[in-house]
Amino acid sequence: MTDPYVEEAGRLDAADSLSAFRDRFVIADPAIVYLDGNSLGRLPRATRDRLRAVADEWGEELIGGWRRWLPVGREAGDLVARIVGAEPGEVVLSDSTGVNLYKLAVAALGARPGRDVIVTDDDNFPTDRYILDGVAAARGLKVRRISPGLDDGVRPEDVEAALDARVALVCLSHVAYRSGAVADLAAVTAAAHRHGALVLWDLCHSAGAVPVGLSAAGADLAVGCTYKYLNGGPGSPAFLYVRRDLQSRLEQPIWGWFGQSDQFAMGPDYRPVPAIERFLVGTPPVLTGYAALEGARLTAEAGIEAVAAKARSLTGYALRLADAWLAPLGFRAASPRDGRRRGAHLTLHHPSAWPLCQAVKAAGVVPDYRAPERLRLGFPPLYTRHIDVHEGLSRLREVAASGRYRDFPDDPKGLT
Q1: Could you tell me which residues are beta bridge partners of residue 144?
Q2: Share of the chain above pLDDT 70, in %
Q3: In principle, which of 58, 81, 122, 129 could form an S-S bond with 86, CB 3.0–4.6 Å?
């Protein structure tokens, strides 16, 4: 008997305008169903070639290559700007997401003297919460947390209720790391501006997955990583965004020579560049910068609207399979059902999510686990097919129905 879901996958894949991008990635073992590109993207073939070329330049030219290498952060930043809906000169590669969040949070607080409250949410990524708590403790400020539902994400009305004249900064994730819920970036930004606060967005699960629209929303600040949907590779540098009119008005707290005007004059005083480069600190990571550049190039070429449309198709298809196959086995969708409010991953709740995660990995499917009791399935649109989703969830169904997962310890100990 023909499986109608296989036929549906075939129709959707045949109509996929992005299908050719899959061949531009290294897929070493096609038998592995990789559903964790929301943690680490696959390796683009162009990246492998580019890194080999840059390594040869290093070997042959030594310091003579610096003049060509140093602009990579700005070049990649301009590509990322296209993806997140910003302007050239508003995004640059720099440091890690956490360091960038610290720099921009402190800069924003300095621009709102007399205000003593930072607003974030309980479900924000842990590093973001820890950094904000640390900044608040160091400066004698208060962190005010809102408590959205784990499955539904932050709503504009939740943020509005937490705002008043004391709030200096609102810091939230655009796409929730746990559920994939998409926040209304424009509405939240407008609400914060009505109360005189600045907003700092974490785009780690947005960039390369969904439209962001920073410029259209009048967004102030943002940070994000390049190793998930942008396929920059392990350790690839993060990016930061600062709206152009804010760049010369904000003072970032880490004064380094790459943010200094007339850098090689080695002058005695720090005079920051009046542009996005003032948010740089030290020597950029050239090799991983080129990896981020090549990864971002693929997404920019595909176009974020096409990428997001396929993400909705993949997650919607996965949700239909989960309802039909997995709900009778004790699974529950822990992501928004409205495709417009869902990023490129789908989260499933099950009381035995941890051993299920380990068992399905043993069956050749790679998802990840997030507490409490959640299995997270990522579907990066550039290389994931609907038939991959079918195969992955089919194996998960078999593992769950057979009870084989009970052979694995139900003790995550904080592991992913």
Answers
A1: 119
A2: 99
A3: 81
Task: Measure the CA–CA gap between 398 and 360, rounded to whole angstroms.
Answer: 9
What digits encode the pLDDT tens for the residues 132-144?
A: 999 999 999 999 9
pLDDT in tens, 6-47: 999 999 999 999 999 999 999 999 999 999 999 999 999 999
Residue matched to tokens 């989960």: 322
Residue 274 has a CB neighbour count (10 Å cut-off) of 11
Which residues are part of the catalytic machinery? 125, 202, 227-228, 376
The overall longest dimension of the chain from CA atoms, in Å, is 78
Residues contacting 136, CB < 8 A, separation 6+:
118, 142, 143
pTM of the model: 0.96
pLDDT bracket for residue 415 (50, 70, 90): low
